[in-house]
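Dear support,

I submitted the protein below through the web form. The confirmation email said the job was done, but the results page showed an empty box. After a refresh the structure appeared. I'm attaching both so you can tell me whether what I see now is the final result or a partial one.
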Amino acid sequence: YYKFLNNVNNLIRIVDLDNTTETNRQYVGIAKAFRAMIYMDMARLFEFKKTGFSKLDDEAATNGVYGLTVPIIGENITEAEARNNPRVPFYTIYRYILDDLENAEVLLADYLRPTKNMPDLSIIFALKARFWLELGTRFEKYSNDLAALIQNVDLDIDSDKDCYIKAADCARQAIVKSGAAPLTELEWYGGKDYFTAFNSIQTSAWMWGGIMNKENIHSVWLNLAGHLCTEQTFGVGGISYGAHRMISKVLFEQISDDDWRKETWIAPEDAGKAPGTKYHTLFTDENFKKVPAYVHLKFKPKEGNMIDANVGAPIDNLLMRVEEMYFIEAEAIAASQGVSAGISALENFMKTYRYSSYQCTASTMEDFRKELILQKRIEFWGEGIIYWDYKRLELSVTRGYSGTNCPVGYRMNSKEGYCCPWFNLFFSKFESINNQAIILNPDPSAIVEDWTE
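What the results page shows now:
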């Protein structure tokens, strides 16, 4: 993140916005959009949330890390300042992020991006939707945090409801401005030849991503596709090495049989058999039989090439697709307009784009969120989106249970009503050597024992 941030700051620093071209102003807008994304990610990654484990929580209280995020490194910071640069409170970083987003919105007002690896106004509103959802949940849970923010910075809000209203509005604007449409069943599987499933920025639902080519590949096995894709031979995640990515058994069992997304993973009753017409796969019948139950077929190598890493490995990196905005909108509507309104929004998305028999029977906000997060877990499995929801809502992680398919050594369970301990990232001690003002988070390593029968 900080290498990325350094590149962004270098661009912002050299452009005088009052004496430059419109193109250069747009470059700064792009850079500020990226900087907002970087800091939103880092603030959420490194802020310590209570875990329910006294060793960690007490140490965090003693060291004074609650409410702190990351140091701000602006474009004009000096080395001396960087070496004595404390972590800033959450309200400071969020004011900084919103300033960048609002500046970017002005600078990109007339920008037409040539490719979707650049942010435009649709991305600015999508980032704002993430931003306001994060703050809405925070202030819903912790009114003292809202009071601290209002006392120290002005974000033009007075309540968590204000944040949710903004989140829903920004999500809707992102949907409209992007012109993107949720993936169809055919697009989900990559078309009739299965060439583009979750590997191409050209897919209609993708709003933002990184465009990769063979020069971006570190080696034939050390690359994203090599770890993520099942249907390939060049990386550890494929059939040559067998380090497959699996859905959890308990999550798989909660997917409706009416939901065509369920065929993204190999059902236990189908493992060891030929795929027939049920599964959309690049595998031959014989290779399919070698793949265990619960392994995914979601992410496919580029151009469907399972063998040549120069072709199959450089899959585009997905940063955002439009379906996320529908989920943000539904949750924010429920939190600001009432559960029934949220249910209507969620059902409208699910019945229109996923399966027509879907029904949400929740009667409380808590139950609605459980259902929404369940569907969000199914929708965004493997995409890195759900981490943010689990930390935001302080949801427990359960990997150890009777019949679990999680490997021994990884069957850790967090505590109900608290943030999962390993979701609070630990600052490298290298940072404390070079930055005397840094306060480290408690180290969560080995704090949770592996679950056993």
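Response: this is the final, complete result; the empty box was a page-load delay. The radius of gyration is 22 Å.
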